[in-house]
Amino acid sequence: MFYRAHVLVEMTSGSIALGAAQLKEQLEREIARLGLQDEVKVLETGSFGAAIPSPFIAVYPDNIVYAPVSVQHVRKIVEEHLLKGRVVKELLFIGERGRDVTAFIPLSPMAKEKRVVLRNCGLIDPLNIEEYIARDGYMALAKVLTEMTPEEVIEVVKRSGLQGRGGAGFPTGLKWEFTRRAEGEEKYIVCNADEGEPGTFKDRLILEGDPHSVLEAMAIAGYAVGAREGYIYVRAEYPQSIRHLEVAIVQARERGLLGERILGTSFSFDVKIRRGAGAYVCGEETALLESIEGKRGEPRVKPPYPPQRGLWGKPTVINNVETLANIPPIILNGPEWFRGIGTPTCPGTKVFTLTGNVNTLGLVEVPMGITLRELVFEIGGGIRGGHGLKLVQTGGPSGGTMTPDLLDVPMAFDTLPRYNSALGSGALTVIDDTHCIVDVVRNFAEFFLHESCGKCTPCRVGNRRIVDILERIAKGLGTLEDLEKLSYLGHYMKATAFCGLGQAAPNPLLRCLEFFRDEFEAHVREKRCPQGICAMKPQAQPKKTLRV
Amino acid sequence: MVKVTSEMREKAQTVSLVTIYLDGREVRVPEGVTLLEACRMEGIHVPTLCHFEGLSPWGGCRMCVVEVEGQPNLVASCVTQVRGGMRIWTSSKKVREARKTNLELLLSNHPLDCQLCDRNGSCELQSLAYQFGIREIRFQGERKVYEVDQSSPSIKRDPNRCILCGRCVRTCREIQTVCAIDFANRGFETVISPSLGLPLGESVCVNCGQCILACPTGALSEVSHVEMVWDAINDPQKFVILQTAPAVRVSIGEPFGLPPGTVTTGKMVAAFRRLGFDRVFDTNFAADLTIIEEGHEFIARLQQGGKLPLITSCSPGWIKFMEHFYPELMENVSTCKSPQQMFGAVAKTYYAQKLGIDPKDMVVVSIMPCTAKKFECQRDEMRASGFQDVDFSLTTREAARMLQEKGIDLKEMPEEDFDDPLGISTGAAAVFGATGGVMEAALRSVYEILTGKTLEKVDFYSVRGMDGVKEATVEINGMEIHVAVAHGLGNARKVLDEVKAGRSKYHFIEIMACPGGCIGGGGQPIPTNLEIRMKRIEAIYQVDRSLPLRKSHENPAIKRLYEEFLGEPNGERAHHLLHTHYVPRERM
User: Fold this and answer.
1) What is the pLDDT along chain A (548 residues), one digit of tens a residue?
2) Does domain A129-339 have CATH number 3.40.50.620?
């Protein structure tokens, strides 16, 4: 059946929270009321990122975007645009610098954006495999299965310089090579979709907007390393991601793109979904494996690393969602194309999630090497309310703490560690200067106290004691000695904790103790909170005051 | 402190060596050992808390951290393998500070009332705090307070004293495959708990007490019967008789400073007589009785086509394990009560009659290497005399402490004999204390009863020793009898799964819940490790060799018991007093 118009409704967890489901229902009702149901088709799509506010409606082939839209706008859009063919000007999304968004495809409406991972998000219906295929979907898989040896695939990924987007930045091609070379008949591909860093939601929007890109990449990885089975470990708090993945897996199987003898070749590969139960530490790859195996989510002793002994003790590749979504374009366009994006030592793009006290919130994909200044002040439109910038926490609480002196450092896996910071998962939590540093640090510390698995002493008790001391300081009971204790505990935990969680937990604390020393000292010497946030009274209960 | 095991020495002989620099000294160590093992081979016993012999490495406590040059963070030596050229520092400033801070953080969430603790003097946390010279705890703050779990008849759990090293969890899972306890909750809220947070007494815990032996602190201990026993001794109305298990005489010297493996039978009898028991008897007497009953049960099943393999029933931990996990094998298990319970039933009937004492005034106390015996003596089935057959069951540790309270030093005691008649026993009963012993004792008697010939070689070496599962084949009257012995419930599972699958060729199987058998029981002195277990086993066979009679059916007191009171083995009265039945239990 042919339709004269397609209407895409953004259907992500975020937009659903803003009423997208009702919006879609209302659209369908209005279209039916006017008898247009055989002419106009309503479809779902993913997030387009920070560039377009949620929820949005896109009308094709007119390339018109209405955003943000609510239920009361629907009648007018249907009557005016879909029935009479007149654009509803007042609801039209006005892109940056005030220009109308009329040519929606293929132009990305935000300068500095470069869409590789998000190439399909917000453009296609994630519940329809045809739309993915229409945009070269599963071409890369067909190419590797028919034209390339597994070694050649690994060579391409290695030459592309792709590094793991989960936060650690380990070269993906090497990981695949180690797994391919590891002895064993059974091997596994695991997709880490347990996105738990506060402020990170890129994996969710990729899975919601383009689930097939991840499935295709897993199959390619399976072919490359010799695995027949894959698991996607996705947090249970992502029901929309799970639903889209479930639909995508069924559709891929129906078309012979997953399952036995894919595309008629001798290669078979299938994918199962495993839901995480909300433990942050299960994003740590070995704790994730324990969880898939049905055990308590605690990190394993490393080495052996997963490429040697992973899931069920078998060689295993564990890649992040964003890492995998990069694979099909790399296969199709070649490693040199990928190397042409980003920096020489850190090629490609990075998806960042802007949150906190910044004007524009949401997802944005940019080349590696962009500065924090560009991200916060150009793409993010600056600090909300005209306040000054206090700090940007990159990659969530376990990532890096970027103080204003670091605004011009290029953002890449290899550059930030020079400043005791880290790119991490790509979360950017912008905190303005009305916040108290003791309060900010306590907020992060409480997160780790809550998420420590409890296996090792430094993390289990150390985080508790850090929060204890910070609570004392916020009540005006802190001493200079407490600041030394905080620093001592922080360095001890970094050196002694079992896994990355415990080692990274004191990062924000240590950086802030150094950079905001005056503010800490005001709390303990003068018993004064310069921002007026901390109660500074012994009886006061600590209140949650971080407003980002 | 873990010793260099024979396994490590073997590794050293067969594997190539690598050079490492240990605190600046060049040393050669076998490839593939951990840094912890390498240090121990060089005489440096790096402190540990979560590391424990026989369990998988855990790496959680971080006490064993060392500095490896070129690595930004400290590494846990228990989970890191040596590599050639490594430069390791085991007591640098960074290492010492980290370990000390670990201790302070553990102590900051631990009661500091060592005097009130069951493990005062044998606590590893206490020793480390002393060795590190901890004089203050710099990091104070919130403390967790938990209710003490006293629901189990055998084991008391005090989570307040727990340092979350997980040794109990791994013991229960890896050695015993019971999985009664595990970590629950997360982070600072982490606590070790039976499943669903139920009390231990309602869990699948089999009461073996191996977790107590593994616990470095006072978080796990036996439910004490000490006060009840004192009260009985001090009550002039009560006639208090004692039975001592085979494994106690080779271990109770340890709390008094005697080396493991010292046989202290005579001194032990003298000591407990001085403690105030009216009679000091021997569980070994009842062990001989068990062999007669169980031997005849085996012969009957063999000759009349009864259910085989027959599986022994002396170990109450094993019995509860079977009731939870292998109820389908219930008919394979011997109906014989354990020696402790046979003793109680005979004492409160036969012996009470003999003395003309009302059994209600008689108190039977046992000293056992076992915590499950406390559960066993309280089972509903164990009241054949019309009263609770065994009133109180003390562990070896509790019994030693009672002697110490009174001021009796076992070492100074003269050698005295058990009282008559329930103190007379043979070497066959003595070996009950070691894995393979019940099988060996049974074979000695079954052979002679069936063939009518004298068994010349009474030592069955193939069922002895610390191998997890042992097998032997004995020819009796031209028939090949296949037997197996398993100790530790994980090993038992291997044999039982074969039986369940119908692949087992065995006629007779001995199962002991604890590694090494009763000498390695959960009620034994701490430490109990592989080396000490082996020494106690040697001592058990020394007792056997030293006795004039080495076959249960030769025990004159047992013969008299049948003549005067019981009648025939497996007869009606014997059945009523000496046999029991089992109850299926849930798996959770």
Assistant:
1) 688 888 999 998 889 999 999 999 999 999 999 999 999 999 999 888 877 888 999 888 887 889 889 999 999 999 999 999 898 888 887 654 344 444 343 334 467 889 999 999 988 999 999 999 999 999 999 999 999 999 999 999 999 999 999 988 999 999 999 999 999 999 999 999 999 888 899 999 999 999 999 999 999 999 999 999 999 999 999 999 999 999 999 999 999 999 999 999 999 999 999 999 889 999 999 999 999 999 999 999 988 999 999 999 999 999 999 999 999 999 999 999 999 999 999 999 999 999 999 988 888 999 999 999 999 998 888 999 999 999 999 988 988 899 999 999 999 999 999 988 889 889 999 999 999 999 999 999 999 999 999 999 999 999 999 999 999 999 999 999 999 999 999 999 999 999 989 999 999 999 999 999 999 999 999 999 999 999 998 876 655 556 55
2) no
Cβ proximity of A532 and A506 under 8 Å: no
**3-state DSSP assignment of residue B438:** helix
CB atoms within 10 A of CB A14: 20
Give the count of beta carbons closer than 10 Å to the beta carbon of residue A342: 24
Kindly indicate whether the domain formed by A5-98 is annotated with CATH number 3.90.1310.10.
no
Q: Domain locations in chain A?
A: 5-98, 129-339, 349-432, 437-525
Q: Distance of alpha carbon B405 from its chain centroid, rounded?
A: 24
Nearest neighbour of A296 by CB, restricted to B109, B140, B183: B183
Supply the residues of B annotated as catalytic. 294, 297, 314, 334, 373, 376, 381, 518
3-state secondary structure of A332: helix
Same-domain check for residues B252 and B315: yes
CATH code (residue B512): 3.40.50.1780
A464 to chain B, minimum CA–CA distance in Å? 7
> How many C-beta atoms lie closer than 10 Å to residue B121's C-beta?
11
- Residue A313: Cβ within 10 Å count: 13
What's the Cα-to-Cα distance from B116 to each of A167, B371, B452, rounded to whole Å? 49, 21, 59
Q: How far is A294 from chain B (nearest CA, A)?
A: 14
Task: Show the tokens assigned to A30.
Answer: 């209005």
Select A349-432's CATH number: 3.40.50.12780, 3.40.50.11540, 3.30.420.200, 3.10.20.600: 3.10.20.600
Q: Which one-letter DSSP state was computed for residue A350?
A: E
Q: Let me know if domain A437-525 sits in CATH 3.40.50.261.
A: no
> At B200, is the secondary structure helix, strand, or coil?
helix
- To probe the interface with B, which of A284, A461, A468, A486 has the most B CB atoms within 10 Å? A461
Domain count for chain B: 3
- Is residue B115 situated within a structural domain? yes
Q: How far apart are CA B497 and CA B255, in angstroms?
A: 39
Question: In angstroms, rounded to a whole number, what is the distance separating the alpha carbons of residues A448 and A459?
Answer: 8
CB < 8 Å to A503, chain B: 73
ipTM: 0.92
User: Which backbone phi and psi does B13 adopt, to 5 degrees?
Assistant: -85, -35
Domain that holds residue B267: 227-578
Q: Is there a contact between B186 and A452 if contact means CB atoms under 8 Å apart?
A: yes
Residues B218 and B234 in one domain: no
Q: Are residues B136 and B283 in the same domain?
A: no
Q: Which of A456, A469, A488 lies closest to B62 in CB terms? A: A456
Cα–Cα distance measured from residue A294 to residue B272, given in angstroms and rounded to the nearest whole number: 51
Beta bridge partners of B499: none
